[in-house]
Write a structure and sequence with these properties.
By secondary structure, the chain is an alpha+beta fold. It is built from ten helices and 17 strands. Among the domains are: 167 residues, Uridine Diphospho-n-acetylenolpyruvylglucosamine Reductase, domain 3, CATH 3.30.465; 71 residues, 2-Layer Sandwich (Alpha-Beta Plaits). A hairpin with a 4-residue loop joins β15 and β16.
Length: 362
């Protein structure tokens, strides 16, 4: 367990206390692979990568604890060696991604629709608050502290509440077998097929629709005997590469060049109910999670995209863009914003951690 005697942690705490005394902002950064995500970062960089290493791993208990600066690739390799994995398939977006950045971003990959979000797998954390105090929440079982499930609360917080020191995570056995099938279908028939497959208990663990093609991943023993009407099978090596490219945005759809963004093109992440109709936006779309996640790439304004998302019963996040003046995240209602501000003051009274990164008011 991490402690205040740890030299790397002491150096970070000293930086935090100095910033708190001066009321100056700090940009918490690990590998920087998700620095584009959220609103623009501000403040002096506080590099978390020296706070690294897997602290404990109990394969029989399906629990691992790692420090925030641990490379995500290192953690996944250690799990794979024991036939286990992070089932929510966290995106890395580059080779330098860290465990702390994974939790702070709160993003999940292709399997999210079947296994649940990252926050459901966070058992406990240690956190350095804005006063330089080391706090512990949860552990290797789920616990609430002072009315808040703080371990989960940190998922997606983008570092605005404090510096994550350690994280304990639930892990899972890697799927024993799997297949990836390709089907030529338009968007609405593709989503209808996925809903029927779910009702029939077909072992779908991931799906993606793009440009008239539905890609479906099946896993588990039943996958070997499962077929979908009109489907062709992708070679296992090619399939693994394809899903990895989707997860880490190497797929062609997500390759948004600087020149395109300069012309007003943006990438949006739109969360809606699975049953929502196709979004009527001019541009290209990529659909995951059986319809619950719609990626939109185009030049529609923030007002247009957010109106379309709201009409469908969801919300939109400006994922990549040259201009984030409209805010990366959907503006909060006054009551919700007030709650966020109270939490921010409780953990970070001088507002030093990643100021404005999540919302301008935080």
């Amino acid at each position: 367990m991490i402690g205040v005697s740890d030299a790397a942690l002491r150096r970070l705490i000293d930086r935090i206390r100095e910033a708190s005394a001066r009321h100056t902002g700090l940009e918490l950064r690990g590998g920087g692979t998700k620095r584009f995500y959220g609103n623009p970062a501000h403040g002096a960089v506080l590099d978390t990568r020296e706070l690294a290493g897997i602290v404990s791993y109990e394969p029989t208990e399906l629990v691992v604890t790692a420090r925030a600066g641990t490379a995500l690739a290192e953690l996944e390799q250690a799990l794979s060696a024991r036939g286990q994995c992070l089932p929510f398939e966290p995106p890395c977006f580059g080779p330098g991604g860290t465990v702390g950045g994974m939790v702070a971003a709160g993003l999940s990959g292709p399997a999210r629709a079947t296994v649940g979000p990252l926050r459901d797998f966070v058992l406990g954390v240690t956190l350095v608050n804005g006063s330089g105090e080391l706090l512990t929440f949860g552990g290797q079982v789920m616990k609430n502290v002072a009315g808040y499930d703080v371990s989960r609360l940190l998922s997606g917080s983008l570092g605005v509440l404090g510096l994550i020191g350690e994280v304990s995570l639930k892990v899972a056995p890697s799927p024993a077998a799997g297949r990836t099938l390709l089907l030529e279908l338009e968007e609405e028939p593709a989503m209808q097929l996925l809903r029927r497959s779910t009702a029939a208990a077909v072992p779908v663990t991931a799906s993606a629709w793009y440009c008239g093609q539905l890609t479906v991943r099946l896993a588990g023993g039943a996958a070997l005997a499962t077929d979908l009407p009109g489907g062709s099978e992708l070679d296992p090596i090619a399939a693994a590469r394809w899903w990895s490219d989707v997860r880490d945005h190497r797929h062609e759809f997500f390759q948004l060049e600087d020149a395109e963004m300069a012309r007003g093109m943006s990438l949006w992440r739109i969360a809606v109910p699975e049953m929502a109709k196709p979004l009527r936006l001019a541009g290209a779309q990529f659909v995951e999670w059986a319809g619950a996640l719609r990626w939109y790439r185009g030049a529609a304004s923030a007002a247009e995209v957010r109106a379309a998302a709201a009409q469908a019963g969801g919300h939109a996040t400006l994922f990549r863009s040259a201009d984030k003046s409209a805010g990366a995240f959907t503006p909060l209602r006054p009551v919700t914003l007030s709650l966020h501000q109270r939490l921010k003051r409780s953990f970070d009274p001088h507002g030093i951690f990643n100021p404005g990164r999540l919302y301008p008011e935080l």
